[in-house]
Amino acid sequence: MQEIMVPGEAEIEIRHSRFIGYLSKVASRADAQAALADIRARHPGARHVCWVLLAGGESGMHDDGEPAGTAARPIYLVLQHHALVNVLAVVVRYFGGVRLGAGGLVRAYTQATVAALGNARIEPVRAQSTLTLRSPFALEDRLRRYCARNGGEIVSADYGEAVVLSVRVAADEVPRYRQDLPDVFAGAVEFVDSP
């Protein structure tokens, strides 16, 4: 599986119709809807704004008035071929007055998506683990800075007798956290559970 790390955009012209492809990383349907609204606002005169969202259980696709199977499906097949996840692909079409036929539309939407992908940067998805760390209140800020510097993302914080942070890290970074934290914090930060 791969993710978009730097968004891609490209424009192609086929028989006077303009096709503008966009690829971006999204985490949810809400993120995708916001990105789609922004693209629609930038292209108020476009005839079609076709899209595919691959984001776990929130995936979807829409042909936006193009004949069924001629827009969203070709976009989807490009994303599948590259094993992309957490991605929104949009192709905007400005009609040029010449009908392309079903085969021509499939080729055009495929080419626009491939062109946008060529301008994006993709990387393999790294497996993730969640560490649960218990820290004295006095060390919370220092622990948060340590996590941020070392690729950790704080996903939750609970406050009781101590601070308990859930930290998402790349699975291959877990051994380093387990080795470094006891030394860096002189044993004051504890692992609550094992990934």
TrEMBL record:
Using the record's annotation, list all stretches that form the Impact N-terminal domain: 15-117
Question: What is one cellular component GO term in this UniProt entry?
Answer: cytoplasm
List GO molecular-function terms, semicolon-separated: guanyl ribonucleotide binding; ribonucleoside triphosphate phosphatase activity
Know the name of this protein? Answer: YigZ family protein
Residue ranges annotated as coiled coil are: none
Where is the UPF0029 domain positioned along the sequence?
Answer: 136-187
Q: Which organism is it from?
A: Crenobacter caeni
Gene Ontology BP annotations? regulation of translational initiation
- One matching Pfam family, short form? Impact_N
InterPro entries named among the record's database cross-references:
EFG_III/V, Impact, Impact_N, Impact_N_sf, Ribosomal_Su5_D2-typ_SF, UPF0029_Impact_C
What does the similarity note say? Belongs to the IMPACT family.
